[in-house]
Design brief:
The structure holds 2 protein chains of 2 kinds. By secondary structure, chain A is mainly α. Chain A is built from 12 helices and no strands. The longest helix of chain B is centred in the middle third of the chain and has 14 residues. By secondary structure, chain B is of the alpha/beta class. Chain B is built from 11 helices and 10 strands. The chains are: A mainly alpha, B alpha/beta.
Chain lengths: ~280, ~260
């Protein structure tokens, strides 16, 4: 009896260990590979210069960078977050704190469905609604499409984070005669690090989006030139340059991937530091 | 058991439902000012539901409804234009499980109700915090680490912290829903001592499943069974010469 249990214990432990290794190996491999391949093309010029001409016999490594793509991705992600974060957080608050009824359930269902919709479909929607209407790819169309992709992710994670806050805290606050909206703010503050994590996940997700960006913001080989004009993005260049067969372009694609990865990991780290719990739960 | 203007609060023909399930049946009860009233009865008899109806806390649970009236100083707290937040400010509540705000310091916990309602005067907040901690006999135990999390205290200290927090918003009535059921005997004794001192200023209504506790702290006792009020009177009368046979069987421990 005892021997069997010990064996089962050992087997389970080995299985979980193997699973963890299988999960970590590709992750570490990606980080390692992208870093090694991308680091050589990283320089100040990468962030400040426009894309170069393809390498040729006359000029085997023409100078240049993806400054416009870094700028473009920052602008798109920034504007999309300005739409997606407030709308998503507020609808998550509604679902958790006010929507414990038929409306809330309907919105929750809608949110779950929206998360599952392929991003290219969302891209097509705004291609039809905005790009075709104004006959131009634009920063506005791109930001709205990416913002829309963020909303259900932010909303669902916010609602889940709020529902994880014990109900006794809502009762404690309400019983002190605190208004409902103020109680909700208190509950939000208890869930802030989870909510921030959810927003971050959404940012990371849209920063890496390619298809909806191409369908709405289009692409550009120049700097930002207005909200109504197309704009460059890192994912466009990674997608385009990686398969170009031109050595300097391929290197830039790796560098772009590295920058994207570092930025996403960097935000993650910052949020963790900022929202570190002031007190530990007793 | 008729409504009288002597009472601080009156429940008048109160019925309550959770969804389709009725939890209170036509309960009428007067609560005497500056006295401790205990609600006793077996689990599920409606005693917690009743006190939650006294400050509209039951409304936090979806699909609840009531009929009847609850009077506070002869004003119906369910009348149109009555604000649940105002009602709860005047009728405070202490819960079964101590529930300090885990992200707030001890001081901030005490004045949470004031701060969350917009009081910003630092000097006043510090003063109130100290007064309330002294009133619940907690000051001496925590004065050197007021910055620590409220959740770092022991269970009994947490419950006294929660009572201090409830008192800080200057309520007139304090509802206590089995405030000692999660505590050890020493912590329980401290809370009971505290309850006895509270009635000088407040009207106290306490739910308990512990009959000895009711006998020790309460001036009046109400016995409830299956959502109905069976008997209500002075504690000594309810325990020593109950009028209803059901009450007698309960207080002598024959069921419950």
């Amino acid at each position: 009896m005892k021997a069997t249990r010990r064996i089962v214990d050992k087997v389970l432990l080995s299985l979980t260990t193997v699973a963890v290794i299988i999960a970590i190996v590709p992750l570490v491999a990606i980080i390692f590979y992208v870093t090694v391949k991308g680091i050589s093309a990283i320089s100040i010029g990468f962030f400040t210069e426009l894309p170069p001409l393809p390498a040729s016999k006359l000029q085997p490594s023409p100078p240049g960078g993806l400054g416009n793509a870094v700028q473009g991705t920052l602008i798109l992600v920034g504007l999309a977050s300005a739409i997606g974060v407030p709308v998503g957080v507020l609808s998550g608050v509604y679902i958790s704190e006010y929507g414990r009824n038929a409306y809330g359930n309907a919105i929750r269902f809608l949110g779950d469905t929206l998360v599952g919709i392929p991003s290219v479909v969302t891209g097509l929607l705004f291609f039809g609604l905005i790009v075709l209407t104004f006959r131009s790819y634009s920063v506005i169309a791109g930001s709205i499409a990416l913002g829309t992709l963020m909303i259900p992710i932010v909303s669902n994670t916010t609602a889940a984070a709020l529902q994880a806050v014990p109900n006794s805290l809502r009762e404690a606050s309400s019983a002190l005669g605190v208004r409902k909206w103020r109680t909700s703010l208190l509950i939000i503050s208890h869930a802030q690090s989870s909510i921030a994590t959810g927003c971050l996940l959404a940012v990371a997700r849209i920063a890496g989006e390619t298809a909806p960006v191409l369908l709405t913001a289009g692409a550009s080989n120049y700097w930002y030139s207005g909200l109504g004009a197309p704009i460059a993005s890192l994912t466009y260049y990674i997608y385009n340059y990686a398969v170009s067969g031109t050595s300097n372009w391929v290197n830039l694609a790796w560098a772009g991937a590295l920058v994207l990865m570092v930025v996403v990991m960097g935000i993650n780290l910052v949020v963790r530091l900022v929202t570190r719990k002031k007190y530990t739960y007793g | 058991m008729s409504a009288s203007n002597e009472a601080k609060m009156n429940a008048v023909s109160l019925n309550a439902w959770y969804g389709a399930k009725q939890a209170l049946f036509n309960v009428s009860l007067d609560f005497v000012p500056n006295k401790v009233t205990a609600m006793i009865g077996p689990s599920g008899c409606g005693k917690s539901t009743l006190i939650r109806c006294l400050n509209r806390m039951h409304e936090l649970v979806p699909n609840t409804r009531i009929t009847g009236k609850v009077l506070l100083d002869d004003q119906d707290i369910y009348s149109q234009g009555s604000d649940p937040a105002d009602v709860r400010r005047r009728v405070g509540m202490v819960f079964q499980k101590p529930n300090p705000f885990p992200t707030m310091s001890i001081t901030d916990n005490v004045v949470a109700g004031l701060k969350l309602s917009g009081v910003r005067d630092k000097k006043r907040l510090t003063e109130v915090a100290r007064n309330m901690l002294e009133r619940v006999y907690l000051w001496e135990e925590v004065k050197d680490d007021l910055k620590r999390s409220g959740a770092s205290l022991s269970g009994g200290q947490q419950q006294r912290l929660c009572i201090a927090r409830a008192l800080a918003v200057e309520p007139e009535v304090i509802l206590m829903d089995e405030p000692c059921s999660a505590l050890d005997p020493i912590a329980t004794a401290k809370i009971e001592e505290l309850i006895a001192s509270l009635k000088e200023i407040y009207t106290v209504i306490i739910v308990t499943h512990n009959m000895q506790q009711a006998a020790r702290v309460a001036d009046y006792t109400a016995f409830m069974y299956l959502g109905e009020l069976v008997e209500y009177g002075e504690t000594s009368q309810v325990f020593e010469s109950p009028k209803q046979p059901l009450t007698e069987r309960y207080v002598t421990g024959k069921f419950g």
